[in-house]
Amino acid sequence: MRKNVANQRWRVFSFNMTNNVPVTGDAANITAKLSIDFGSLTPITDTNPTEVEDGYYYFDLTQAETDGYTLEIFPESSSANVQVIGVPGTFSLSTVVISSANLPLVSGSTFAYYRGTTWGINISGIGSSGSDFYFTLKPQSYIEDTDSTLQINTSGLVYLNGVAQNNTSGTLIYSPDDNGTISIDINTVITSQIHSGVKYFYDIKCVDTVTDIRSFGSFTVKEPVTHKI
Q1: Considering the domain boundaries, does residue 201 fall inside one?
Q2: Same domain? 113 vs 180
Q3: Can you give the residue range of the structural domain that contains 208?
Q4: Where are the alpha helices (DSSP H) in the chain?
Q5: pLDDT tens over the chain, length 229 residues
């Protein structure tokens, strides 16, 4: 969920309180209220949600309904013995500030790679200006760069598992073609040292005259099933 952005959805889950079985076909009886920044509860503009399947439904949110740093949802059903919960119940949002040049932000990108394999990451549409870029990977965004799981810039590898590096085991190449493209290659020596089974977050930041985030998203490192070969 992003702050003050239109065309977003909030998923809820409905189940029978007596047997914990998911409830389907109940959209017309489900409503919800929102609290923005711990304010008063207000009915969601989308009166009834759209059913997905297996007890899941979603509400469409207006831009104004996402204009806060903390959003809470309070769904309910008028059907007997039916409990509805938000998935999740609370969102803590942030605003990504882009430079005055109105450079694009490529968001929502999700990557998944196997540990111990060569990673080739390509992201396009990040803007045709800039020259000094950083790709940073962490399990939590608040962690200092010096403790990054992985950080690489246009000069090579910077940090690996919190240890400073100074080598070319990884490369980051920026091209202004196709409205800006970043190509990142990281060899097996490096990727074999990154823990699998952890959900990471990444961003790509331009640190030229104007510092701005050009892309962000989630990143999963998977463990290979076959280790011998």
Answers
A1: yes
A2: yes
A3: 106-222
A4: 188-191
A5: 677 778 888 999 999 999 989 999 999 999 999 998 888 899 999 999 999 998 999 999 998 998 887 888 999 999 999 999 998 887 765 444 333 333 444 444 678 888 888 888 888 888 878 888 999 999 988 899 999 999 999 888 889 999 988 777 788 998 887 778 888 988 888 999 999 988 899 999 988 866 688 888 888 898 888 876 5
